[in-house]
Structures are given as C-alpha cells and as structure tokens.
Amino acid sequence: GPPSYPIKESKFVAGKRKKQNEDDNDPGRRLDDYEIKHNFITAFTDAIMEKDTTGIPIKLPEQTTQAFPSVLHRNTLMKDRKDKKDVAGSLFARQFLASKPVKVVDDKVEIEATTSSIIHNSPEAVATFVTGEGLQGNDNINVKDEVKKIHEHNLHKLSTMAKEDILLEQSRLITSMDPKLVELLQNRSKKSSNADSIKSVVESMEVEQKPNEITASSDMDVDIEEDKHLHLHDNCVHNEPLEKEKLQWMLAQTKDNVNSTLENGESARFGFEGQLITKGSDIPAHVGLHHHGLEPDAAGYTIEELFILTRSSFPQQKIIGLTTLAHIFDKDHKDEYRGKLEPVIPILLDAGVLFLLRWSLDDHTLAVIGSSLHAIRALVMKEEDEHCLDKISSFYRGYETPSFEPAVSITEFKESEKSQITDADLVHNDAILGLVRMDFLPRARYVLSTCHIGANEVISCLKILWRIGRHSLQLADNVLRCPGLMKCIIDNFLPMSWKSLESEDSVVQLHGYPLWEAMKLIRILCTAGRNITSTFVSQFELIPRIVRYVALSPASLQLPSERACKLFRESLKTWTLCLHYGIASSSFDDYFSIVMEKIRSLYRVSLFPCQMGSSSRIDQLLLSEFIRLVEKFVKLASIKVEHGKSVESKMLESSIQWSKVVGLVDVIYDCTKKWLVEFTKCTEDSVTEEAMILLTNSIQVISLFFEGLKHQNTQSKNVIESLEEMENFVDNFLSKISNSHIFPCLLQSFSNLSYKYGDLDSQLNEISSLPRFLYAYPCNHPSIVSGYCSNFCNTLVHLALSIINFHRGLVNKFKWLCSHPGILEVIKSFTTFRRTKGGISGYLNRSRTHLSYNLVKLYNKIASIDDHDLSIHCEIYQKMVLIILNEALRGDEQLVFDLASNHLIERRSFLSGNVSYDEDTLGNLFAITLTATDTSKSLSYQSNFTKTMDDAISHLQSIRGLIIRYFRKDSAMLQKSTNLFNSNAYEINSLIITCAHTTITPLDWMFLPLIDLYNASLNEDAIQDQKKSDIVSQETKNVVVDTLRLIFLLEIWYPSYMASIDITAKIARISCTFLTGNDLFLERTIHLYMEILLRLYVQTNQLSNTNFAAPIPGITSYYDLYVSLITQYDAVSFGDHLFAVFILLPLQQRCDGKLRHLVWGEYIGIIRHLSLPLNKLLFGIDLYLTPNETDVALINKYLRALIQKSLRSTWSPILYVIAIHHINHFIFDGGDNVSVRQEMIREIRRHEGEEWVTDILRYIKVSENCDRSLMISTSIPPERETLIQKACVPIST
Fold first, then answer.
1. Contact indicator for 276, 319 with CB cutoff of 8 Å
2. How far is CA 95 from the centre of its chain?
3. pTM, two decimal places
4. pLDDT per position as a tens digit, 395-414
5. Radius of gyration of the chain from its Cα atoms, rounded to whole angstroms
6. H or E segment at 269?
7. 126: CB partners within 8 A, 6+ apart
C-alpha cells in the first residue's frame, strides 16, 4: 500500500500544486484576496511621508508686466558677488535669482541685440568661450582685468610677428585641432559676419497691432528659399544650419507643390463622421481633415491612414482613427456607400481590422478603451437588425430567433480541428468566434468592473455581448460561464435599489442603475437554452429582479421615462421567455396579485379610437406584454391538465391552477369583446399598431384558453355553457368582422405590401463571416411593416381553428375567412413571392408562412366537412401548400411535414383543378410510345391521358406514404419543431433556430427520392448479398414509381410551379432512374412515366434552356453522371429507345463539346447500340446539325469512326447522319482550314467505293423519306469536284 509517512516535496512543487487547486476560483476574487493579504496598498501608502514645510518662509514671485519669463543665456553674468555664500544651487538657479524682468513699454518688446562683429580693441566683443563666463575664480582676481591683459598681450604678440609667421602659426594651430572644432569655428565666424540681420529680426517681432485687430492671414504661403524670417538668434539653443527640405511641411500646401503617388486609382477618403470626401472637395484646412500623408492637399483620411492612426502611440490619434472607423462601419451597415464604394466591412475584415480594434481595447487610456468598444460594436452589430428583431418578438412565435452563425459553422468542428485553425483564418470564417477567442469576454469583465468607463461605453459593451449571445448556444454559454462577467453586469446594471436618475446627462457613469440593455442581454442568453435560463433563475435571482421592475408603473422607477418603459417591457419579455421553458412557473402563485392588478387595468383601456398621445400608446405596448405573460400561464396550465401524470415528474415546480387562470382570462375575454365592437366601428385612421398588437394578444389568449378548455372535462365550467358562450362570441363579435369597414382596408394594404415581395431584392452583400439581414433597414421590409396586420389575421384564423376543434357545429360560421375577397387577394400576392436568397433574411417572412399555413389548415378543415362554395378556391390553396413547402425555413419542420403528409396529396385538389395544357401538347405527351410496334392497335392520346391519370390518382395513398417517409428522415429536427409548434414547454431546450440560412426543402424536393436511391445503389453491391438485394429492389421499384407519379401529377396540374425548377436539373434527376437498378427502367409503368416526363421536358420552349455545363445541385458534375449513364447503357440497355434518347440529348450542338468528345472518343463502342431511328427522336434533328461543327479534332473522330467501320447507318442511324453532315460541311465549307480539309479529302478518296464516301461527297440535306435519311445527289457537284481535284493533285503526281 501507499506509505504512511509524509512525502517531502520542494517549495516549487508545493506552490505549483497549490496554484492548481486555486484554478477553479474566480481570478478577480483571488487578485483581491492577494492584495488584501499582502497589504499592498496600505504598505505603500504608509511609507509615504509628507514633507514638513512649516519652517520654510513663503516668498511671492516678483511682480512683472511680462507675459512670459525671460530667456536666460549663458552670457548673463552674476552682478552681485557679495551674497555668494548665501546663494546655493546650480548656476542656472543663481542666474535665475539674479535675473531681472524685461520691461514692456508701449506694447513693444524691447530686446537688446548684441553685435557679433569683432572689435579688436574691445575684449568684451570676443567669442563667449574666451570671456571667462561662468568661471569661479579667486575673489582677489578680477576676471575682466585678466581677460583684458591676455587680450592686450595677444595683440602685442601679433604686432611683432610677420605676416608669414602668423599664417604659419595659424596653419600649425589648425592642423593640431580637431577638424570638427575647426569647422564649428568657421561656421560661427560666417554667421557673425552679418550683424544687421539680427536687427531685422528684432524689428519684425515688434507687435504693432492691437489684440482685437489681429486677423488670420494667408501670408504664410512663402518660399523657404526667400524667407528671411527663419534666421535665428546666435544665442538661441539648437542654432544649427537650416535644413530647408525638412521645413517644407510647415508651408501651406498647394496643388503645385504636391507630388501625388497614387497612379492606378484613388483611395476612398473619409471625414471624421464617416462621410465620403472627394479629392477635389473645397474643405478649409482649419477643419482638421488635412494631414501630412501621401496627398497633403487632399482632405480626409484613407483606410490605410486610419489603420496607421489606430496603431499610433498617441491616444488622441488612436481615438480619431477608432471613432472614424466606427462611423464608417455604421454607414456601411446602412448601405450609404451603395454605388460609390465596394462593400467596406468585408474588405476591412480581411485586412485584419478586428485585430486592431481588439488590441486597442487593451490600452490603458479610458478614452481609447471607449473608442475601441464603440468601433467593435459598430463592426459586429447592425443596430437596425436589433430593432427588427425586437419588433418581430411581438409576433406569433416571435421569441424564436435565428442563429447569427455563419453557414459554414466552425463550432461543429472537433476541438483538435479548432486548435489548428489560426486566428486570421478563424476571423475570416467567423468574426464573432474569432473575437471570443481573442479573450474579449475576460477583457469586457475587467473593463466593466474596474475601468469605470462612461455611460455610452457601457452600452456599447453590452451590445457587443448581445451579438455574441445571438451567435450560437455555445457562445451564449461562454458568456454565462466567463468568470465574474454576468455577476458584474447584474450587480452593477440590474440592482435592486438605486438613486433617482432624472436624465442620462446628469451622470457620467451608469454603474449602480438598472439598464434595459442588461436585461435584454439576459433575455438573449436565455433564448439560447434551457440550462442558461435555469442558471439565471436559480443563481442570480432573476424573477425577483424582474418583479422589482414591473411591480410598479414605469414612472415610479426613478429613471428617465424612455429608459423606464424599455426596462419595464424587457423585464416582462424576459419573464415570458422563462415560461417558454416552463421555468419559474411557480412565480404565477407568488406574484398573482401583481399580475391580476395589471390585467384589471385593461378595463380602463379603449383601443378604437384611442388616445393618440405617446404615453397612451406606450401603455398599450406594456399591457400587451402582460397579456403575453398571461398567455404562457394559460398554456402551462393546459399542458398540466392535458398530460397529467405523464409529465408530472417534470412539473414539480409548477403550481398553476386552472381556476386561477380562468379569473385572468375572464377579464381579458370581457375586454376583447369590447375592443372587437370598437374595431368593427372604427375607421382606418384610428387604427394604431400598438392597439392592434394589444387586440391580437388578447385574441391569442382566448384561443389558447379554448384549446385548454377542451381537456377540462367540466372541471371549472359546464360544457354546455361553454358551447353556448362560444356560439354567442362567434355570432355577436367574430362574424361581424367580415362586414366591418376596417377589415377589408387592412387586408388591402396588407396585400399591396405583399405584392412588393417579388420586387424586393437583397440590398446588402452577404458577409460570410458576419451574418446579418441583407436589408439596410429591415424594419421597412414589407413583412415587418405589415406584421401587425399579418399577426392579427393569423391569430384570428388560429382562434377559428380552436373553436372548430371544440365545437364542430360552428364550421359554417368561418367560411367567410376562407372565401373573403381580401383574404384571397392576400393569398394571390403570396403566390407571386420569389424565394429569398441570402442568409437569414428569409426569417423576415416567417409571419407570412405561419399565416399561409393556418389558412390552408382552416380551408381543409372546413372543406372536409362542408366544401360547398369552397371548391372553387381549391386550386389557389393547393398552390399555397407548394409555396410553403419551398419557402419554409428551419424551425418550421412541423408545418412542412403536416402540409406534405395531410394536405399536399388530396384527391379533391387534383380532381378539381384544370389541366393547363392544350390539345396539341397533350397529343404530343400521350402519343404512341417509343416501344409500341403496332400503331394500329395504339389508343388515342385521350385514352392514354385518362389511363395514365387514373393510374396516378389511384395511387395517391402510396404517394402520400412516400412523402411521409421522406419528410421524416430528420426525426430530431422534426421533434424539436413539433415541441416549438405545440409550445411543449418542458420539452423545449432552445429557442434559437439553427441552420437558419437554408430552407427545409430544396426547390426540387420531389426528385430527391431518386437521388437518394442513386446514392444508395453506389454501395449496394459491396454491402448486401443478392437475396437482400432482391428485397430492396422491390422497395426501390415502389419508391421510383411513386416518385414519378408525384412528379407527373405536379407537372400536369401545376406547371407554373414546376417551371421554377431548372430543366437541366429535372433531366439529370430523372436519368438517375437508369442507375438505381440493372433493368429497373424496363418495368412498364416506370418506362411509361419516364417517357411522358421526357416528352414534357424536351418541348421546344424548354429544351432551349438546357445547359449541361452548369452546376447541378446534389450532383458533383453532369459529366461524371453522363459517364455512368453511358456505362450503364452499354451494359444493360438492350438498345432501349428511351435510354438512347437520354444518351443523345446532351450531344446537341449547343451543348458542351466535352460530352461529344467523350462518346466519339473513349466510349466509341456505344455507337453500335444507339439504334434509335430518326422518326422516334423526340425532338428535331436540326439540334444536332446546326451550327456546323468547327472542332477539327471532333471532325477527325467522326471520320475515324467511319473508316474503322465503328459507325454504320444500320447500327446508328442518327449518329451516322450527324457524322455525314458535319464532315461534308467541314471539307467543302470549312473556311481557312485548307490543308486540313485537303488531307481529309485525300483520306476519304483512299476509301473509294465505300457507301459512306458517296454519302459525304454527294450529301445535300437530311430527309426522313430518303434512304438512310439522307438526300444524295446523282453526281458530285462541280464546285466540290474542283476542290477534290485540287486536294488530290499530290497523289496523281
């Protein structure tokens, strides 16, 4: 066993183990504890002692009339030597004490200028370094006298020397001195030669103007070469020679003295507010937009220059760069640069702007930190998107939000794969995830808790956290689990008590005040998942804080009115969102009195007409949020009754009683009836969006109440009384809506906006690493502008469905909802809608999808009981089903599955519709089949049409089973969507809609079973034995037949809908049938439907749109598919004519030449089996003949096939005609290829006597009535004979 004695370890190991044990603690708390333990602050402050200045006399400075102190020079001698013992300190200190102020007389500064000319008779005039200045000699020696004696001695010495001796001594002295010192002396001598220049400087410095008369002048534009004002005083410090080229920047720039280096285009220039500035704009220099860049005459900053500023070591420059970038980001999000610039944000992200902003956030200056937060917020978050999401949250299922995660998600990678991705690659693929990897969250915690940033900076930081929370569940969880971050936010910005705040301008910081931005952050994080919500409720006491903010009116919160209202509303939204998961349901009993008090205030509200004041409309919004809270309480109570013991274990915390819910609903029910009466009598001018939202939410509560009442079993009300109350409600209130004046007006405006869907193109370019709504102002999107009307209609239809499910006798009371002209016009406007392309922007149309679904459900519900007067509208509702299947986004899988399985395949819908094809088209589609041999016994096309249609309709049940199996493939997503659709609170794990970039089903979803079978057949032989393969083959046969029947029905009944699918994709998907089994295509039913569909697709108006070179979704390339088809045809086709048409179809002259090279080259052996006669080709032979072939290599392959006898007219009639036609036109009309043509003619003449030689030389045109379908002349035309003779001259010689 282990030893019982203690193991000795080093201090290093002990410290390391202790550090590991402390890793789980809060880093901030450990830092605070460490400071307190070691008493750093107190130890430092205790060591500081204040200097005792009580014994030092206080001396006032000498009064002077100067504006600035005098400049001290070294030649200022100390006058008073008597007080030397009392004076201590440096030479400068003594000179300063001895200096006198310069007098100012008559506003002119009198400056004594010393001449620099050398006066040989005055020793004071010699250079200062021989005057003895600064020397501290003996007091008994007079320095001036000694200097004078030395000077006189030198003069006497020089007077006795000859001129040659003086020059000799001078040269000897110079050679013994340092050359640099000699140069210095010579320069000083030159400067001192002009004493008058100093006098001019003094005169130029005189101030002769009064202060109020000084004006700005442009006299600074002078040339440095001619400027005499830059001569400096000899005694001034740094009196070096002037470097004029370095002083050029001091002059005002003009276009004449600017040397621009931008040759290949100009970079965009921006102002401080992000506005574009043209290079030639007339902006004065004092604005501050001119700088010393490559173009100093041009105002504004380029992106490169702004990047330089953000990397500057001066805080002011960094702030300018960061602030300007923030304005640029905001304007680019609003699309203000459209038509002027390329999208700015994608370019800057690739350039690494996010790294610059994150590095700036680590600065120690608060102003730089704040500017960095503003810039990051402007980059990653589009303000208009948040406004739009807030508006959508009031819609039906508006709390479900899309994930703002890139389409190619890196969060799904393994940890080992993530670690290999560099930061630059990560930002390129996912900017938000890259920002989180840069440790933004710990830095945000530090900034919010320690740096004491201002109000705007706090808001920007919270908004950045919004964007991170909307990214995905993983990042939302990272925000919650960042040490100390959420605790800091809740403690500082969601307190339970605070001081009164009249306005935001009255405080510098918002710490200690409740912020609606912080509450919204919690709501966004709660949207991500159930566990996050549970953590907030249990650990951070979220519900008591919410109740603290909503218990009283917003005016009692001691906050600015706007902030108080937003905090009130966000708190209610967060409470409601918690109830979506069934969390905090016990709060219903805890705060029932508060909720009841707010609901009772509805009695005092009048909606139509309402008071148009802003306060009244805000109150309506707040009350509507309370009604939505009650809605969730009602749903939770009904779930408990509905499921009973099956979910009892999951509802231990829930104590909502149905009897208490009834009390709340009764108040809402009474108010709704009053508001409906007002609604039917009001005019369009008196309707407000806030009033409609309040009415809509009230109707939704009643609808959910009726659904829950169905499961009560007379627990609270008598069933008969409930039925009578419903009848009274429908007859006296709901039915009168159809006859009101306002309802048709709302529908008309709604449909007018809906028609704009088709004309609305994406305005913004998609940023792959930073998803956003592709509209500059998404709140102006038609589906958002008309959202309140759409939501009202949707809730009304949902109420009708709830009542019909409870009381089937009221079915006829709601027929007006399905046949109302306004409703039908709205549906028609929906059918003109084009599929949304571009990221998550399709989420804006979700309310339209929900309304369409409920209308279809109501129509089919009523039509199944009594379809009188409704059958004429069957076709438009059936088209609506198809539209929803194509447009529904992730999160609505339940809607798609329900429509596809229960409403797409209905006998009523196919029998009531009219076929959209004329007699000629039907005659072509259902003519004699390709396999028929006895034309006399063939049926007429009407009989074939009737027979085929009866077969398809008789198998509707099997087709429906196929659809159900297909739409159930992703069972996990379907179950999640079902829980959201039914509001199964205790089964919902997240309200974020993942993979929101794509629709649930592709446009050609009806063909996908064939693709799946083809993919499965690729590995079938390797994984299954022959016996099992036979079983699967039978199942495969049923799937193929039912799929072809479904496609046939949709093509015949809804051709306009099917026309939106690319014709090439249709042909490619149908051809996959040949690859699903060896001889499956030979089955009679499959062969029949494939031939009908092929005839439909090769009509003249559609065949011209084929493009086999274009990419096809779901297929790697058509070239690879075509190779598989050729191989399959060669193996198992048995010369089938239908298969041959599919092989010949891509060989048209207008199609990709690679496919023709493939058949005539590598797969030349297949030609022998393509025995399709010309009269059975489903389209004209001209598609293979025009334009004439110009590819020499392909012509050579045609000729080689004839020479090698691989191609014969009896084997391949169509290919034989094609080869003869193109060879003939090339050799006789081939243009400039003379030598190649002559060589071909000589090759053809070498095989004289062959049938194909005669056909080439005598070919005129294609004719089905002639032998071999070729019209041949009796002899070779003369012009051709001449060409042949010219080509054969070398042979004869």
1. no
2. 70
3. 0.77
4. 999 999 999 998 877 666 66
5. 46
6. strand 269-270
7. 118, 151
